[in-house]
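Researcher: Next sequence.
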Amino acid sequence: MTDALRRAGGGAPPRVLVLGGGVAALETVLALRAHAGMRVEIELIAPAAELRYPPLDVVEPFGLAPPRLMLAEALAPLGVRHRLDAVDDVDVRERWVHTRAGALVHYEALVLAVGARPLAPFPGALVYGDPRSRAAFAQLLALAGRGARAGRVEQLLFAVPDGVRWPLPLYELAVMTARALTAPGGAPAARIALATPERTPLELFGGRASGRLLEYLEQLGISFLPDTRVARIRTGEVELAPGARVRRADRVVTLPVLRGPRIEGLPHDANGFVPVDAHGAVRGVSDVYAAGDATDYPIKQGGLATQQADAIAEAIAARVGAPIAPAPFRPVLRGMLVTSERPQYLEADVAGGGAHAAETPLWWPPTKVAGRFLAPFLAERLGARPPAARPDERWLEGAIPCEITLPVPVPSPHPESVARAS
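Model: Next structure:
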């Protein structure tokens, strides 16, 4: 059976359409160009002009401007067009994407990397994530500082909601808040607690990473509340479960829970996420792939999204004749947590392989998202030289990177997604 990707009309290379403007989308483009070269035409459709890089959202309220990368400028040398638009629906039978601007864009292969929809997990909290919430959090910091000068100490609770499998950004917010609101040698301007359904800090990593983080939270005066969920928020206090415990809290800060994009024309589960196989192919349709938060993979994290993107790029590259044997998605979780001024690199194997500490990075460049192609691409264009951070890269100071291989079963592929190397 002839592969549809080898049947582009008029001798033109088949068009691969990538939807999304985040790390999964950019990793897909970079990996596909690296593996397939000019065997494919690539177009990226994204609604924003800049790369969406959520791992550095936490630095904005603290006066540290995250790096900016204009997609069109970055993609032009690769021969990739950036269309400033967004997907509306997909016709998988005829291979058309309908955009919000009214365009019809044809594809031979489609890669969905549009992310997920953020929702508030409970009323009354500041849900951190979008630009408006980041501005509101900056105001919270300013108010806490003014309150301390007037003799008032704010009570802040950072609460991990149920269903969030990647809570690291909230830990970073709590840690950076504690550092920002404590003058050297002075009293803290806020009493901070972190409540989480986990048994230990960043439980997913386990071992030494959790232990070191707990020690650091204690050093900063952050109260760690394990096995704890927010039941209700009232004025000046919060009810915690289990046990209907009541704790004073002037503000509660949390993360959004995610739901899938529910794009018309594409299959999705009850929560809107797109079902994929081990090579990223969307189940039930032909020539459509998905990576990142839009998929039904349970842990939503940028590094995992880039690994999904790599599997997709290899599968597509082999289908268009590139000499590559595509490897399935094998999730390895890496995280860099902003903590003290002295970096420590930790590795833990949650399957029982133990843990150890190192003074050298576990991946290179040790950026927040350790994408195989994305990390060096961003390091080159943004001038990042970790771990010896420059003054304008202060968010890299004091990081605990962690790496584990996830013991999470990955579904076997369906036949049409497995590429055939030539």
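Model: The chain has seven helices and 22 strands. The radius of gyration is 22 Å.
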